[in-house]
Design a protein that fits this description.
The complex is a heterotrimer. Chain A is mainly alpha-helical. Chain A contains 15 helices and no strands. Chain A is flat and about 70 Å long. The chains are: A mainly alpha, B alpha+beta, C mainly alpha.
Chain lengths: 284, 383, 288
């Protein structure tokens, strides 16, 4: 009787095979073949030239993830200690920007960070540049902010911060209050309760938050294009140009995408293993 | 009056190759209160689910009024169920929960038939009155106490006027006091409506207090069927003797009709029909044993432990290394040597079975032990 | 979790919200700026809003965005709920691996999902071309189109591919939390399985379905990368129009459309929240 209801999933399993598994198989096929057809490893051997881009992508994504964690965790924790009503409003406020497409939000940062943008105008209005020029004898008219790696990281943090806050918040919020009371009852101070109980128990939320920030960061191409200009090419840009850009070569693009995917999957697997170990340690 | 309403013929049930029911043959009479009694995993809930239509037996037949019902789904059977932990619909209030079954459109001769609203209303209110929940119609389920939820579940099942009501450990989640009240309440409802109740429980007291018939089950097999008095006074084997009430069970030999030997001594008893010198199990209920001064006793032993139980003392007495439980109203301190007398009607003889030697010795008796057992059984049955 | 939040906490939180909303505020302010400049204020105007309404490209992109998001959400909600019910009734040894595959679109980088679907569509269209040329040459009765392009259809498929897993993710836990006996109870009271599903299961898992639909819609509206690779050259979403403009100059019309979107969403959220709060209040009063 039970198995018959499982038939409800059959159409979707077909969908998964067609639109999830098959496309990945396509990527693998393309990565291991040349434009002329036939098996080749050339796509991978050519990738050495892009080692710099790989390194830059992972570096920036890691920085963005770390900053998101440092901001997102305390925010999630603080929200969870507020009243129910405050929590609901705060969650709405965090979700709300996502309903405007992330490109629109990123575009807005352009006008803030430009050389003649709002921030530089603000600095000049309060006489910051005059002050610096007078002190150092330099001839500074603006801070170069846009088209830097910093701007790209800022864009990532801005866009993906909600992805860090939401899972951490939902784990902390569900935490059994009696656990914290028990810890207090056993003589732990606030700091100790946080370190020994809340932090380890919220680790699953942290892990999923880290994944949800790191993966889109490492693979982004729009943010780098809008805020990083043409100097700070990232993996995403590299892949994009292979598919729709001037350097049309889907075989190379697939190979890069495949390598990126594998590296990310390995990172996540290692991290999750590490996370599980932690959890068990807490149980003991 | 006695009509065989439902029959199970040679029913077997296997889950993933594991036999859960082993050739069950059982019939249920019209308007009787029948209890399936046994430890968790004995197959009682499986039996109930087969009758309810939630499971189809692997082999054998389920007959309602001699019509084969094996593959008839639950919605087309004239039985209703009170589920473990009630399974009330949380999104509906008390009235709508009870009205649920009445609102389901039924097909009769190809046409959909809906009950008129006034009739639904009348029947629901009537039923709420039967379960003493008058005035609770608009309450939310989540705001009710365990006992009240229980009553809603019973009303919801009974409002459809089933021929048979199945109850799956319905009192398991209630506290002791409430459980006692609900026992008499259930019995009252059953008698008032005059329909068959099939009741599943692991609680022997509950079974003894309410049932017309008790079916004792273990390991997927029926161990004994009988009235409460039958299964208590004349247990068929060591399992039944141990599971229902307290029993001292020891090895004996039937010398001839009405004479049994144990502890190297012959006793008169009321049993007959055994082969000469047949080894048997002897059951002696703790409350049947009379303690007498040592010199008047048929047997003598030393008290090793005493526990006050309110009405009586649980006294553990060592007879040549075999420890008996004796329940008396007199206090005998630990270390005292006492004598006992056994009258012929205190001694029950059972044939040897696979359960022989497994039960009935109180050497390792402790209260915690018993309570832990009970707690374990409380949490869910098979599956 | 509740303890007295300190003032410092509040200030820090306010700063984070300022960070989240400052760019949106800037965007809205400059939608009323009487100049092409997006940094120098030159007086108030509504002309960008007027021009926006006359801009065919932006309006059609907005239409495409809304249509694909709503359509994908609706289909994904139904399909995802159905699939979740199927998975729930599935044997564990099947369910495990299938759920892993189901997670791929959520955990995989958007760009990988985008390009892989793009490759699939291109390969399928090529195969389709070969097949139809052969098929058309075989007979003259039915003429099948030989050239297919990426467009709204492929865009919708792509959105469904990443929306359905979110619905499943939200519905499955609700199914697990549900008392299994509820279905039995409904059937026991005369329902067929299907009736039991409508009358009992659906109300129980409704919160999961609603939040799943909400998240699916959010993801669809917020998506740029996957749409970018699967919409083809003739179909554009709003984000794609903006991206196209960055190569030239971004018109303040974009500010105007962003502001409109933001205000719409904000209004919706406030209405929903106020209504919910009222319902809760009414409920509590009834309990007392």
């Amino acid at each position: 009787m039970k198995n018959r209801r499982a038939l409800f999933a059959v159409p979707y399993v077909g969908w998964l095979a067609l639109f999830v598994v098959a496309p990945i198989v396509m990527v693998v096929l393309y990565a291991f073949s040349s434009a002329a057809g036939g098996f080749t490893l050339e796509n991978f051997s050519r990738m050495g030239a892009y080692a710099v881009v790989f390194a830059r992508s992972f570096k920036l994504a890691l920085a963005a993830t770390l900053i998101c964690l440092l901001i997102g965790y305390p925010v999630a924790y603080m929200i969870s200690r507020e009243s129910q009503r405050f929590q609901r409003v705060a969650m709405m406020l965090i979700m709300l920007p996502m309903w405007m497409n992330f490109l629109l939000r990123t575009y807005s940062w352009m006008s803030i960070l430009e050389n003649t943008g709002l921030l530089n105008r603000l600095f000049s209005a309060i006489g910051l540049f005059r002050l610096i020029n007078a002190l150092t004898g330099a001839n500074l008219e603006y801070f170069p902010m846009i088209n830097t790696q910093g701007a790209v990281v800022l864009g990532m943090v801005y866009n993906y911060l909600p992805f860090m806050i939401l899972p951490i918040y939902s784990v902390i919020e569900k935490m059994d209050a009696s656990l914290l009371e028990a810890a207090r009852d056993l003589g732990a101070g606030s700091a100790r309760v946080f370190r020994k109980v809340i932090l380890p128990l919220s680790l699953p939320g942290v892990l999923s938050g880290v994944t949800m920030v790191f993966v889109p960061s490492v693979s982004t191409f729009a943010i780098s294009k809008l805020l990083g200009g043409s100097n700070e090419l990232l993996l995403g840009d590299l892949i994009e140009t292979q598919f729709v850009g001037t350097a049309y070569n889907p075989h190379l693009g697939s190979a890069i995408a495949l390598v990126m995917m594998v590296v990310v999957v390995v990172c996540m697997a290692v991290m999750n293993r590490f996370g599980e170990g932690e959890e068990q340690a807490v149980m003991l | 009056m006695s009509k065989k309403l439902i029959r199970l013929v040679d029913c077997c049930m296997a889950f993933d190759g594991e036999l859960v029911l082993d050739h069950i043959n059982l019939y249920f009479n019209d308007s009787e209160f029948l209890t399936l009694l046994g430890p968790s995993g004995c197959g009682k809930t499986t039996t109930l689910r087969i009758i309810g239509g939630f499971l189809t037996p692997t082999s054998g037949e389920v007959l309602f009024d001699d019509v084969r019902m094996n593959d008839i789904p639950p919605n087309l059977r004239q039985v209703n169920t009170v589920f473990q932990r009630y399974a009330l619909f949380p999104h509906l209030n008390v009235f709508e929960n009870v009205a649920f079954g009445l609102r389901v459109p039924r097909r009769e001769g190809g046409r959909k038939i809906k009950l008129p609203e006034p009739e639904i209303r009348q029947r629901v209110l009537e039923m709420l009155e039967v379960v003493s929940l008058k005035g609770f119609e608009h309450r939310r389920i989540t705001g009710l106490s365990g006992g009240q939820q229980q009553r809603v579940a019973i009303a919801r099942a009974l409002v459809n006027r089933p021929k048979v009501l199945l109850l799956d450990e319905p009192l398991g989640a209630l506290d002791l006091r409430l459980r006692k009240d609900m026992q008499s309440e259930l019995k009252r409802i059953q008698q008032q409506l005059g329909i068959t109740f099939i009741y599943v429980t692991h609680d022997q007291e509950e079974a003894l207090a309410m049932s017309d018939t008790i079916v004792v089950m273990d390991q997927g097999r029926i161990q004994q069927i009988g009235t409460p008095e039958d299964v208590y006074n004349e247990p068929k084997n060591a399992f039944v003797a141990d599971f229902i009430g307290e029993s001292n069970i020891l090895d004996g030999i039937m010398h001839e009709d009405y004479v049994v030997e144990f502890f190297n001594r012959k006793f008169k008893c009321l049993d007959s029909g055994f082969a000469p010198m047949e080894p048997v199990d002897v059951v002696i209920r703790p409350e049947d044993i009379d303690i007498v001064p040592v010199e008047k006793g048929q047997l003598r032993g030393t008290v090793t432990a005493v526990t006050f139980k309110g009405v009586h003392y649980d006294t553990i007495v060592d007879f040549k290394g075999f420890k008996w439980l004796i329940q008396t109203t007199d206090y005998h301190p630990e270390g005292e040597t006492i004598g006992i007398v056994l009258n012929p009607d205190d001694i029950h003889i059972m044939r040897k079975s696979e359960y022989s030697g497994m039960f009935g010795d109180y050497s390792s008796y402790s209260e915690e032990y018993e309570e832990m057992d009970g707690a374990e059984e409380g949490s869910g049955d098979e599956e | 979790m509740s303890a007295k939040p300190s003032r410092l906490n509040r200030v820090l939180m306010a700063l984070v919200f300022l960070f989240l909303y400052a760019p949106i505020f800037v965007l809205i302010v400059f939608s009323f700026n009487d100049s092409q400049s997006r940094t120098v204020w030159q007086g108030f105007t509504l002309r960008w809003y007027v021009e926006l309404l006359q801009d065919r490209a932006i309006m059609s992109a907005l239409w495409t965005t809304l249509l694909v998001s709503l359509l994908a959400t609706a289909i994904a909600t139904v399909a995802g709920t159905m699939a979740a019910v199927g998975f729930f009734n599935m044997k564990k040894r099947w369910r495990g691996p299938i759920l892993t595959v189901n997670n791929i679109p959520m955990t995989n980088a958007d760009i990988v999902t985008g390009v892989s679907l793009c490759l699939l569509f291109v390969a399928f269209f090529a195969g389709w071309g070969d097949f139809t040329r052969w098929f058309n040459s075989l007979q003259g009765l039915v003429h099948l189109p030989t050239r297919l392009h990426m467009g709204f259809g492929t865009l919708l498929i792509a959105h469904l591919t990443f929306d359905i897993p979110y619905v499943i993710l939200n519905v499955m836990p609700k199914l697990r939390q549900m008392d299994k006996n509820l279905i039995d109870a409904a059937q026991d009271l005369g329902c067929t399985w299907m009736q039991a599903f409508w009358k009992v299961v659906l109300p129980e898992i409704k919160p999961g379905i609603v939040s799943g639909a909400l998240i699916a819609f959010t993801m669809s509206v917020d998506d740029f990368v996957i749409s970018y690779f699967t919409a083809g050259s003739a179909t554009s979403t709003l984000a794609m129009v903006v991206y196209g403009m960055t190569k030239r100059r971004i018109s303040p019309k974009i500010n105007a459309i962003s502001s409109l979107l933001f205000v719409t969403v904000l209004t919706l959220l406030i209405v929903v929240n106020v209504r919910e709060a009222r319902q809760e209040k009414a409920l509590e009063e009834r309990k007392l």
